[in-house]
Design a protein that fits this description.
69% helix
Length: 185
């Protein structure tokens, strides 16, 4: 049997299989109305929000609202020094944000509010992971010799300040009445 004949038979079989497949889409699309009664008066914005598949009375609304607390906690960590942050925890936040942002756009009903909170959760995680990795690379570059030199420079500056004004360094006040008045102001 020739190769072209085998290919022809295989293509015929695959066409027949595709026609018989239960997963094949029909030629025409079926549209389903979301309204129970098309002659009913139009709903207000609040009624539509309440009756929506992702409305106020569903978990599809309240879960993202509560998840914003994680985003705000991550944003508040921007003020913390990088050495106090956990790399594993922030990697988990980044992965969670990336995976669930994609998933929120696939599931039905598509939940844009949940996708938005997960996107921002991923962004916060990326920023924190970047801060941690930059701090780790910086701390690896700092050798013991460099740290000792920086400490010596700081000690030298402190000693020069004491030599210039020993009374101020010791906290001795020459005029206690003037110091008390300036403290009250």
């Amino acid at each position: 049997m020739s190769a072209s004949r085998t290919t022809f038979r295989l293509s015929q079989f695959s066409r027949q299989f595709a026609r018989a497949s239960p997963f094949r889409r029909p030629y025409g699309r079926r549209y389903q109305s979301t309204e129970a009664n098309p002659t009913a008066p139009p709903q207000s914005t609040l009624q539509r929000l309440w009756n929506s598949p992702v409305g106020l009375k569903t978990v599809h609304f309240w879960a993202p609202v509560m998840k914003w607390a994680l985003v705000l906690a991550g944003v508040s960590d921007f003020a913390r020094p990088a050495e106090k942050l956990s790399l594993v925890q922030n990697l988990a936040l980044t992965a969670t944000g990336a995976i669930w942002t994609r998933w929120c756009l696939i599931i039905k009903p598509r939940n844009i509010l949940l996708a938005a909170v997960n996107f921002f959760l991923g962004c916060v995680g990326v920023v924190q992971v970047t801060r941690i990795l930059r701090w780790q690379s910086q701390s690896k570059r700092d050798t013991i010799k460099e740290v000792a030199q920086q400490d010596a420079k700081e000690a030298t500056r402190t000693a020069k300040g004491i030599v210039k004004d020993p009374e101020a360094a010791a906290g001795i006040v020459k005029n206690p009445e003037a110091a008390a008045k300036s403290a009250l102001k």
